[in-house]
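sry for the spam today, last one i promise. struct tokens for design, 420 residues
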């Protein structure tokens, strides 16, 4: 038997209400903040991600689904959205249409990571990108939107972590200071961190190995070496968060796994989902548009993992969506009337009700069982003595009320059901 590929999941009909609920909350919050939806292709030229996210990142160096298509072009399934959104922004000159483009997305992503709880190879993100302004208020806006979405979902066990990576000049200076410090401890670093020492030194802060963490505990911090403009930018972000009642902590070791960040970075972590606790991450990227061939356009954004969020909701028991219901089940009491039952179902569906009927020539008892399974609010009986008198019987499944209607008076039946 062929099974779904490791790290991918089917979202079955019984899970769909949770997903739709989440998508609804997300779209409403983004609409309130005036973000417009954008949809970009599932695959892009590999060079976009290599240049956008950074060759030395884990995503680009070991996690991308990259392959040659039939015309020998190297393409990659999108591991994240920011690079694709920026490509679309440049390609369609969106900056000519609006001075600030506020965009949001909900989409599957692909990363060939080691599957474990909360980490998938196909997963879903929602996120937002604001292109065209360096205003620290927009950095804060991203964090506020993420936080408001989590709060609307009822999540409690949250920590907002923020940091500033400053601008490249101060960061490069700082890297030399960090290098000097780590040179003295180089032999004690793990193999992976020794590699990162050469390729992506800041990421050593991300190491989960005790051996590395011990050394990094006393490492000099970037935030202590930021230039004045960066510190001012960061202060404004913090003030805006305080004014909007967002509890946060500054985590000077928050470096993030993508290369495009400058200034603010942030993550929201949950205490309810185990080791993969980051529900969302993001930050400012003022150089990315230029690096991908566009103008000097600053940007800021974030993305959130929807599987992890739903897991947090499940563990905190926040979503009580109730069972799915249908309006009406039509029971045919007589095999000769199945055609009439079918036509009645079609007409009532066309008038906007959710309606089901029997397609298996089942007994009345079996049809009633099916109506119960589907949580039908009403059952309409077609057949028997009533039908000979030109009538059908509508039964309310939550009480004992039963009413007769003329068999062709579908409007009255529909009104009765709608009125309930
Ligand atoms: P990221 O931190 O790579 O950032 O991913 C954002 C979120 O996606 C994570 O916090 C996590 O919830 C979820 N996520 C990532 N990988 C997986 C996985 N394998 N399985 C399940 N969930 C996962 C970005 O993607 C940036 N594009 C965010 C951004 C937007 N920065 C600026 N704009």
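last one done:
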């Amino acid at each position: 038997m062929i099974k779904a590929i490791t790290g991918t999941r089917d979202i079955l009909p019984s899970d769909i209400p949770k997903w739709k609920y989440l998508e609804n909350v997300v779209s409403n919050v983004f609409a309130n903040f005036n973000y417009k939806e954008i949809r970009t292709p599932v695959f892009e030229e590999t060079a976009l991600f290599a240049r956008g996210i950074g060759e030395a990142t884990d995503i680009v160096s070991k996690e991308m689904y990259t392959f040659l298509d039939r015309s020998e072009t190297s393409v990659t399934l999108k591991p994240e959205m920011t690079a694709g959104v920026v490509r679309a922004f440049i390609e369609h000159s969106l900056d000519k249409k609006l001075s600030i483009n506020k965009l949001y997305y909900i989409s599957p992503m692909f990363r060939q990571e080691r599957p474990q709880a909360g980490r998938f190879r196909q997963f879903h993100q929602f996120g937002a990108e604001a292109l065209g302004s360096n205003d620290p208020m927009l950095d804060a806006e991203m964090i506020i939107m993420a936080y408001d979405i989590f709060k609307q979902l009822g999540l409690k066990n949250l920590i907002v972590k923020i940091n500033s990576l400053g601008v490249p000049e101060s960061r490069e200076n700082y890297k030399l200071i960090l290098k000097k410090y780590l040179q003295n401890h180089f032999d004690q670093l793990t193999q992976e961190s020794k590699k990162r020492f050469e390729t992506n030194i800041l990421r050593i802060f991300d190491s989960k190995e005790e051996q590395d963490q011990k050394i990094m505990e006393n490492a000099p911090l970037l935030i202590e070496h930021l230039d004045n403009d960066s510190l001012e930018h960061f202060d404004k972000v913090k003030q805006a968060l305080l004014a909007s009642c967002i509890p946060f902590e500054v985590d000077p070791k928050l470096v993030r796994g993508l290369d495009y960040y400058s200034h603010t970075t942030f993550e929201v972590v949950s205490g309810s989902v185990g080791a993969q606790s980051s529900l969302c991450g993001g930050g400012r990227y003022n150089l990315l548009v230029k690096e991908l061939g566009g103008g000097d356009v600053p940007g800021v954004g974030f993305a959130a993992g929807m599987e992890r969020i739903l897991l947090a909701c499940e563990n905190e028991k926040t979503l009580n969506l109730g069972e799915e219901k249908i309006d009406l089940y039509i029971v045919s009491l007589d095999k000769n009337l199945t055609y009439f039952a079918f036509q009645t179902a079609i007409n009532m569906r066309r008038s906007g009700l959710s309606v089901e009927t029997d397609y298996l020539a089942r007994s009345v008892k079996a049809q009633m069982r099916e109506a119960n399974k589907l949580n039908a609010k009403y059952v309409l009986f077609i057949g028997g003595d009533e039908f000979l008198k030109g009538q059908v019987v509508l039964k309310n499944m939550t009480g004992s009320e039963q009413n007769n209607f003329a068999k062709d008076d579908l409007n009255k039946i529909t009104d009765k059901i709608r009125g309930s």
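The chain has a mean pLDDT of 96. ok im logging off now
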